[in-house]
Amino acid sequence: MQIETALQYLQNGDLQQSKVILEQILGQNPDNPNALYWLGIIFYQVKDYNQAIYNISKAIEINSTDQYCFDLGQIFLELNLLNESIHYLRNTLTLNPQKIEAYYCLGEALFKANNFEEAATCFQMFIQVYPDDVDAYFNLGISFLKIKKTQEAIIAFKKAIELDPNAFDFYYNLGIAYLKENNWQETINSFEKAIKLKPDNADMYHLLGVSYLMIGFHDKESEENFEKANYYGYLNWIKNSSKKRIYKLTENPEIKFAIVYFYEGDFQEDKYNRLIEHLEGQTYKNYDVFQGYVEKIDNYSHVCFVEQGDLIPEYALSCLAETIQQNKDLELIYSDEDIYNCERINPYFKPEYSPLLLLSHNYMNSLLCLKINNNLIQELKNTEKIDQKYLYKLVLKLTREKINLLRIPDVLYHRHLENSQKQENSSMKNIVLDEIQERQYNADIVDYKLNR
Fold this sequence. Notes:
The protein is of the alpha/beta class. The chain has helices at 2-11, 15-28, 33-45, 49-62, 66-78, 82-95, 101-112, 116-129, 134-146, 150-163, 168-180, 184-197, 202-218, 223-244, 269-279, 316-326, 355-358, 374-382, 388-398, 417-424, 429-439; strands at residues 257-262, 287-291, 302-307, 332-340, 344-348, 369-371, 405-416.
């Protein structure tokens, strides 16, 4: 009668009153297994695991039942005490082979203990009675993967997806299973479905890129697959690199940027307004924007150049300012870049300074940042028009002599696709010829189109 009263309090959530009654029972009969078991359950619910284990273990010593063993096995599993968990869960099934839920818990414990073969057997036993349990199929698939039974894993994952078609992990691991089978098309199908469910998962873009790359290797004429590999690989880089950036500098009165917005042809107000709006999100705030030229340039410490239609990310100026703050003698800074046309593509991770490579193309033109001095002030005042050709001439002129320059290995410039195509079709041959003569190099020019 007292046990029933204690259980009624426990069911109503009054753990303290239930505990008092159970302790009274044990005061009269210390070997009452039922009271010991339920007292252990109360200790478990208040997270006093040592007392929970002590009381339930003592109950089992007196009267070993499948329920006592099962609950103690689950407690040990929760505490990641795997040997103890496996022992009591095995005892549960010895006492009552029909306690099917014990197979599931035993499968989890065995899996954690790296006994994947037996874990798979346990999940299969559970599925025979509960054929619609999605987690069991998933765990079975993972167990099969671990023991390299990929075909069996594929069947299990497909069944899990049939039961729940909106689970990222199911498609992801199905893709892994197909990948191990070198079935690249099915790998791609699975990974693409996984990405739809978790579009911010950077690793998925890497794996999908690798899969397209492998199809490309097996189909030499499939240029599209290589392009997709590059596309997804870059998305992976974007998402991973965004987690690592810690540019936090917002203002330094000694570092003030003049951003020159330049254009060829007609000025397009909508594109200019878009840049201004985009710049409002800059972490670093000490800058001004000018169209084509800089008024009172000596009021600024550095000048940057952005072509009409192009953009710079919100961390660009903060990155530049932190770099300058750490090395005040830098005269020229340039960064990596990519192309955007609704989305970011075709990254250009540039080399460090190479004089001869610079004569093949101007890889320093974006994002280009120059320290303002008297010579540069005079140079900018004397120019009638700033465009890509002028910037190339300027960079070549500045690098004729020893100059303190640095590449920032991060994408700080987003070139619009139209500007990229225009630049690829624009010849800088005469500029290079003039520079070769100026430097008195004994060299000839060979035409070669750079495809990025």
